[in-house]
Structures are given as C-alpha cells and as structure tokens.
Design a protein that fits this description.
2 domains; five-stranded antiparallel β-sheet
Length: 282
C-alpha cells in the first residue's frame, strides 16, 4: 500500500493520534482508503513507511487545513507514522522543544541537506527500542466474512488490468466509461451524493473539496461486504477513479496487486487537471 501514498487525500486532525488509543469499532466506515489501510496494517506497514521518509516526490496536500508548508511523500509518510504511534523525533533533531515547533518546521527542516536521512535513522532507532509500537486498532467485524460476495475470475481480472492500464489523467468521464465500463457505484460528493441505502458511499474524502474533486467511481474485483462505505480495505479488492469538478479523470486508487495506481507526478499537471478551465476564464 505504500505505493499509494501519493493517493492519500484526507488526513483529519480529529482522527490523528496513536492507533493504540483508538477504541474498538464495529464495521467502521472508511475515511481514506490509503490512510485507513496503512493504519489498520499496524506494525506491518512500518518498514515501508519508514523507507518512504526520504521520498521527495510531490503530491497533493492531504491535510484538512493546509495552511503552511507543501508536504511531499516523505512528509505524509511521517504524518501517518505519528498517527500510528511513532514518537515525534523531529523536535529533538531540530534542537527545539515540541511547543516551539511551527507547522512549517515539519516541512522546512527535512528539506535541508541530509536531514531526511537523519530523520529516517532516528525513527528506525526509536522503533528498535519500542518493538511493541503501533499495533493495529481493534475492529470487530459484525458481517459474515467466510465467503466473498463477488470474486472476479482470472480471465475477468486480466481484462480489467488491460482496461485500467489504458487510463490517463485528463480523460473525460465519457472516455473513462468507454474504456473501464460501468462502475459498481458512484459518489457525487457531499453536496449531491447519491446514497447507498441510508449512508454516504465515502469514496470522496472529507478533503476532496480542497482538491476540487467532485466525483468518484468504484469497481470491485473481490467484495466481501454489502455496504460500500464500510468496505474492508484489507480484504476487499477494488479500484476507485476520481474526477475533478470539470469532469477530468485525476487519479486512481487500486488495492489490486496487478493493477497499479495512477496519480499526477507534478504539481503543474495536477493544477491543470483541477483548475485550468477556471484559470482560463480569469
């Protein structure tokens, strides 16, 4: 799942905090498919998250209030590690007390020289001294998960892999539908979302408005649950396609091993997908 970090679109202050402090939840809804999976994996996602601390690739800001700083992949990996219960070692490295740290310090300090390597080394050292850190939050699943409700055949999965590999950011909804086929469900966002039963589908995160994303399609290759908002990202296998308010395909989440995710690699490309028609009007 660490290949998906650039697809983290929602990190909320209200859910931040060590996973060990989270009480048992029954059939919890998904807040963000990448974030939730990495947290629910507990200690198993620690090695790849630590490896990503030196990743300086650009990604959209997933914070609910992106006031200061422009986080890269390594910065977001550090946010997730902190939410999993890893001690915040950055103030010590910066020779500051925690209350003296400003938000932009968390982006500026790692960007200097070999600071990301030093941060990575400090986190690894702390984890070696705390081997019991970062257990997965307890979840009580009330649904019967003994038999999947849907499992795509090997031939069907191979065809799906070809279809989704042909998608490119910037395609229109009509082009995407012709190539990927009709989705299993559609989320039109908070303002005009089509409901699944009595609940939100939850494909578009709470921060989707920051990114001007207004539409999402979901396609299942393996499905164990009835309610899409309560999908199990560790067991269900699915693809989510996201679209801007201008109807352009922006990125793709995939937890299907043979179907890689898609996301813009540069800020300029992302800005064109999200805002170019509005910029032209100005």
């Amino acid at each position: 799942m660490c290949r998906e970090i650039s697809n983290v679109a929602t990190i909320l202050e209200i859910i931040q905090g060590p996973a060990t402090n989270v009480g048992p939840a029954k059939d919890p809804p998904v807040t963000d498919d990448v974030y939730d999976t990495l947290v629910r994996l507990g200690p198993y996602s620690l090695p790849c998250l630590v490896d990503r601390l030196t990743d300086t690739r650009w990604m959209p800001d997933p914070r609910s209030e992106p006031l200061l700083g422009v986080p890269v992949v390594g910065d977001v990996a550090y946010m997730i590690l902190a939410d999993k219960g890893v001690h915040d070692v950055l103030p010590e490295l910066a020779h500051k007390k925690p209350h003296e740290m400003r938000m932009d310090d968390y982006f500026l300090w790692p960007s200097i020289g070999n600071h990301r390597l030093r941060l990575q080394g400090a986190v690894r050292s702390w984890l070696l001294k705390h081997p019991n850190c970062c257990t997965a939050p307890p979840i009580i699943w009330t649904a019967n998960l003994s038999v999947p409700k849907l499992r795509m055949s090997p031939n069907g999965l191979a065809r799906a892999r070809i279809r989704f590999s042909e998608l490119r950011p910037g395609m229109s909804r009509q082009q995407v539908l012709r190539m990927a086929g009709e989705p299993d469900d559609i989320d039109h966002g908070i303002d005009g979302s089509r409901q699944s039963g009595s609940e939100r589908l939850g494909l578009l995160g709470f921060c989707s408005g920051n990114h001007n994303e207004k539409l999402a399609y979901i396609y299942f290759t393996e499905r164990w649950t009835d309610h899409i908002a309560q999908r199990d990202p560790l067991r269900d296998r699915y693809i989510i396609l996201f679209f801007s308010a201008e109807g352009k395909f922006t990125r793709m989440f995939s937890n299907v091993a043979s179907i890689p995710p898609i996301f813009p690699s540069k800020e300029a490309a992302w800005q064109r997908l999200m805002w170019e028609p509005q910029v032209k009007k100005k």
